[in-house]
Amino acid sequence: MESTMNELGSNAASVLDIDPKTSVGGGVEDVYGEDFATEDQLITPWTVSVASGYSLLRDPRHNKGLAFTEKERDAHYLSGLLPPVVLSQQLQEKKLMNSIRQYQLPIQKYMAMMELEERNERLFYKLLIDNVEELLPVVYTPTVGEACQKYGSIFRRPQGLYISLKEKGRVLDVLKNWPERSIQVIVVTDGERILGLGDLGCQGMGIPVGKLSLYTALGGIRPSACLPITIDVGTNNEKLLNDEFYIGLKQRRATGQEYSELLHEFMSAVKQCYGEKVLIQFEDFANHNAFELLAKYRTSHLVFNDDIQGTASVVLSGVVSALKVLGGSLADHKFLFLGAGEAGTGIAELIALEMSKRTNTPLEECRKRIYLVDSKGLIVKSRFESLQHFKQPWAHDHEPVKTLLEAVNALKPTVLIGASGMGKTFTKEVVEAMSSFNERPLIMALSNPTSQAECTAEEAYSWSKGKAIFASGSPFDPVEYEGKVFVPGQGNNAYIFPGFGLGVVMSGAIRVHDDMLLAASEALAEQVTDAEYEKGLIYPPFSKIRKISAEIAAKVAAKAYELGLASRLPRPANLVKYAESCMYSPVYRNYR
Ligand SMILES: NC(=O)C1=CN([C@@H]2O[C@H](COP(=O)(O)OP(=O)(O)OC[C@H]3O[C@@H](n4cnc5c(N)ncnc54)[C@H](OP(=O)(O)O)[C@@H]3O)[C@@H](O)[C@H]2O)C=CC1
Ligand SMILES: CC(=O)C(=O)O
Ligand SMILES: [Mg+2]
């Protein structure tokens, strides 16, 4: 067989009409075309070896530190390389949590967690899964924002793949340098809109790394199947350009054709390297690129924009869940947004879509229940011509209104949603106005990190005199107001994307459809219990997230099967059980 291939030469694969990347001759995938390559073609000389001894201790995927048993120490040449004691994983976890809790600064906790991930991957995930409510703010918002701002100074080891303009023309080769071959989820950013912190260039890498650690901890995707990528096209952040420790290209951002050519090369290379079924999550792109990339690739690739679609799904879920407390149906409510970018218009569109489906009313009619304010004021018809395309559907017949407070007073919304990236914009007057004409105003201050939140939980509860139902993008502690404890919910796409991704991966979905986002949203809303509503919550606690993710994955997968988008056949009978069975567990394995 091999000699026949050699005789056929470099065109062997195409002559035989075989895709060298996906063919499974001898049961082995020739992912990088090594078997088919001729002498004049270049390949990457990957080797696979069994780690032992010192290198086993330095391999984060297999290292167990002091938890290696006596038998393993003997069998794997570890004797003498570790002190005599053997600890259980539970005890290691207890010790590490004690030490993390001693750090005063969140960034120190972040660095301790990153060090742990580099040293012992399973222990890192064990900590994160078992202590999710405590550690989520460390590896994710708000601390990840600070980490990105300081990424150059705290950088120790690369954690993902960097693709810069320097690699234009050879992006495929760069992808092939990544050591893992069975990639299922990529989170990619170009660093232009990191949380509400603006352009952090190459230092945005903290975001794909953080999001993917949640894919594993919250959604059960294997760490080896996750690939964080930062595309470095420069930065317009002067501070970074002048920072001697900046890790990225020191040039202003490439735009236009140069930008889209690199992105296109990247999108094509991903498909070539990992096939059709790798989920590409766009994260924290600026809106002028985010909408365009999603529109351009949603029909040819398995893509998902977390800021537009994931956020929409989680907020719709919170609103639907809040209806139990607010009363009325979705269409009975009036929505006002501060911020009309990716998050704002993405959420608005999904709410309108759900309203339209529930009431059998045209989408355009449903949009009329939803108003948005941007940096220039209320989006109204008279501004139509000057509006970016994603704002135009929201240009309603209304007189111009300059400020949020005026818009609140003029429109009397029942729901106020902040996605402006601008902290302190839900002022006392705004919250008081919302509470003056609503028995229970729903107020969501979604901007991240905490410094950018439109208002704090304390402000929402005290200014509304305990009337507000409140959720925020970054976590806030419970608030005691006039003897009652209010527990604020976290309206963050972290509830959705891990389970959503699991559903996509386990069903072998080939495209993302809006109905799959609606399914995820519904699955999340169903998880809130009466006891949680009692506390003022509209989202279930993150401590239940693995169960929630399995439910979301099952509903998303079911929708993919229903729509004919799932390629994993036959369809498992019990999708929740199947989702659970697919989930990565961080418990140590025994080595022979
Ligand atoms: N909780 C969650 O899960 C998520 C939260 N977010 C957060 O939402 C925020 C926005 O993200 P995104 O939508 O992607 O950003 P965009 O840049 O796409 O949109 C920001 C919007 O806010 C408007 N805006 C900015 N400042 C003001 C102001 N002072 N008054 C009124 N409007 C203002 C902008 O107006 P203009 O268009 O005129 O410039 C724009 O419409 C970020 O902080 C991000 O962290 C995002 C995704 C998920
Ligand atoms: C949560 C998130 O995706 C953001 O703030 O951008
Ligand atoms: Mg984001």
UniProtKB/TrEMBL annotation:
It comes from the Eukaryota. Residues 308-561 form the Malic enzyme NAD-binding domain. Residues 117-298 form the Malic enzyme N-terminal domain. InterPro entries: Aminoacid_DH-like_N_sf, Malic_enzyme_CS, Malic_N_dom, Malic_N_dom_sf, Malic_NAD-bd, Malic_OxRdtase, NAD(P)-bd_dom_sf. (S)-malate binds at residues 193, 448, 492. PROSITE patterns: MALIC_ENZYMES. A divalent metal cation binds at residues 283-284, 307. Pfam families: malic, Malic_M. The active site is at residues 140, 211. Signal peptide: none annotated. The keyword Ribonucleoprotein does not apply. CDD domains: NAD_bind_1_malic_enz (cd05312). Its cofactor is Mg(2+); Mn(2+). GO terms for molecular function: malate dehydrogenase (decarboxylating) (NADP+) activity; metal ion binding; NAD binding. GO terms for cellular component: chloroplast. It catalyses: oxaloacetate + H(+) = pyruvate + CO2; (S)-malate + NADP(+) = pyruvate + CO2 + NADPH. Divalent metal cations. Prefers magnesium or manganese. The keyword Metal-binding applies. One of its GO terms (biological process) is malate metabolic process. Keywords: Metal-binding, NADP, Oxidoreductase. Belongs to the malic enzymes family. This is Malic enzyme. It comes from Linum trigynum.
